[in-house]
């Protein structure tokens, strides 16, 4: 099995359940508050560990109880967190998540220690990058770090996957040729292409990313499944399970990425990996919570 490396964010999630998202100037009451481990990088690494992958996480937390809890939680599923930074002068990152009755969510992130995941930190841990086969990145850490890590990983011959979330309208042009795979959802695809997502333009929009140098594009489409554009221009749709009752979509995208990477690390081709990731995401959205909703491989 190949070695997986996640370079990304670690947050403590403050999850509230809402009747609806508040409008500008509106005050609403939430139903309860949960504190649960999260962060896109941590969620993806946790999914990899829980699904039997060999994963290491590079990231940063504060020297506080929340940072300790995040690391302990990842270590409990076999993720190597030995190189995670523990900073005395920064707080662990936080996210405030509002979950609506139909399971959709909105997220506000306070980066905290995540802003200290710098290119220098990656250089200091170059041996970890060299020992890895598949490198997974997101955009909750400084963009310059993402670009440096992707360029370095590509130079070392590693497979590089980018989950472009939270989406950035103008990613550096020199990032795209470093990516073996980019995995936006439909909203992120619209931001990346500069126009609202339209199903009829899905192939055209994916081709526009490929024209920038990305080898393959995999777009997750919520309840509609996902769409793959390969490097040769061939395409494939993967259907979501129509019988799944959506409870909470938190961590669905992160678990999809983690499951995809684990499947690729076992030598599966991208189409098989996408099907496996879709099944994992189906389970995740049928349960409440973030990391707690991610299934074990046996499930």
From TrEMBL:
Subcellular location: Cytoplasm
Residues that hold ATP according to the record: 185, 220-225, 253-254
GO molecular function terms attached to this record: ATP binding; metal ion binding; ribokinase activity
E.C. designation(s): 2.7.1.15
Biological process annotations from GO: D-ribose catabolic process
Regulation: Activated by a monovalent cation that binds near, but not in, the active site. The most likely occupant of the site in vivo is potassium. Ion binding induces a conformational change that may alter substrate affinity.
Active site: 254 (proton acceptor)
InterPro entries tied to this protein: Carboh/pur_kinase_PfkB_CS, PfkB_dom, Ribo/fructo_kinase, Ribokinase, Ribokinase-like
SUPFAM superfamilies: Ribokinase-like
Cofactor: Mg(2+)
Primary subcellular site in the record, as a coarse category: cytoplasm
Keywords: ATP-binding, Carbohydrate metabolism, Cytoplasm, Kinase, Magnesium, Metal-binding, Nucleotide-binding, Potassium, Transferase
Binding locations of substrate: 11-13, 39-43, 140, 254
Highest taxon in the source lineage: Bacteria
Pfam families for this protein: PfkB
Gene3D superfamilies per record: 3.40.1190.20
HAMAP family named among the record's database cross-references: Ribokinase
Family label: Belongs to the carbohydrate kinase pfkB family. Belongs to the carbohydrate kinase PfkB family. Ribokinase subfamily.
Biological role: Catalyzes the phosphorylation of ribose at O-5 in a reaction requiring ATP and magnesium. The resulting D-ribose-5-phosphate can then be used either for sythesis of nucleotides, histidine, and tryptophan, or as a component of the pentose phosphate pathway.
Quaternary structure note: Homodimer.
Protein name per the record: Ribokinase
Originating organism: Candidatus Acutalibacter pullicola
Lineage of the species this protein comes from: Bacteria, Bacillati, Bacillota, Clostridia, Eubacteriales
